[in-house]
Design goal:
Blueprint lengths: L1 E4 L5 H12 L4 E4 L11 H4 L9 E4 L2 E4 L1 H11 L10 H29 L9 H25 L10 H15 L8 H11 L2 H6 L6
Parallel strand pairs: 1-2
Antiparallel strand pairs: 1-3, 3-4
Keywords: Transferase
Family: Belongs to the GST superfamily.
GO molecular function, one term: transferase activity
């Protein structure tokens, strides 16, 4: 059976859990990370030298990096409805997956660490204001895309891109900052909530 290493509160672990729900894929999850088994142990570092969750172990195959993992699961377990086989449609999904991992993640990092995690190293007022503005700017980009498609991030159909970005949207609404009106994002948030996998692993209020 597929093993998922990582605590369920991790946003990146939740990508994998939600993908498994969409694929009706059975798994066993093990708690690793802060507060649980150390990712700096020799056993874990042998699986992921970056000492980060999630890691999946599928038989003899080991993989880390959450977006790579969900792509693998879709490819391996009949997930073409989540990750299209045709090059243009797949590229559109990949485009938004990569945007989430780079631009969007980079935008919310400082603000999240400051406002949610209360990190002492992330309490500079000017840096926090800049981070909140940058996060809002990226969410506005997402809002325009969602208003254009009227449905999901990469087009009419739900895809892996929505798993990655949907979790970031949950984080946006769960972080105590000023949220400008983004009707496309708000409607998307409610649309995703219709999916059982999102209710279980996405819109659960966990930071």
């Amino acid at each position: 059976m597929l093993r998922i290493l990582g605590k369920a509160s991790s946003i990146n672990v939740r990508k994998v859990l939600w993908t498994c729900a969409e694929l009706n894929l059975a798994f066993e999850r093990e708690d690793w990370g802060s507060g649980y088994q150390s990712t700096h142990s020799e056993a874990f570092l042998a699986l992921n030298p970056n000492a980060m969750v999630p890691v999946v172990v599928d038989g003899d195959f080991v993989l880390w990096e959450s977006n790579s993992i969900i792509r693998y699961l879709a490819n391996q377990y009949g997930g073409e409805h989540l990750y299209p086989a045709t090059a243009p449609l797949r590229a559109r999904v990949d485009q938004w997956l990569d945007w989430q991992a780079t631009d969007l993640n980079g935008a919310w990092s400082y603000a999240f660490l400051s406002l949610v995690r209360q990190s002492p190293k992330h309490q500079d007022p000017e840096a926090l204001a800049a981070a909140c503005d940058n996060w809002a700017r990226n969410m506005t980009i997402l809002d325009r895309q969602l208003q254009r498609t009227g449905a999901y991030v990469s087009g009419d159909a739900f895809s892996l891109a929505d798993i990655a970005i949907g979790l970031s949207v949950n984080r946006w609404f769960q972080t105590p900052l000023e949220h400008p009106p983004l009707p496309g994002v708000q409607a998307y948030y409610e649309r995703l909530t219709e999916r059982q996998g999102y209710r279980l692993h996405g819109r659960n209020g966990a930071p």
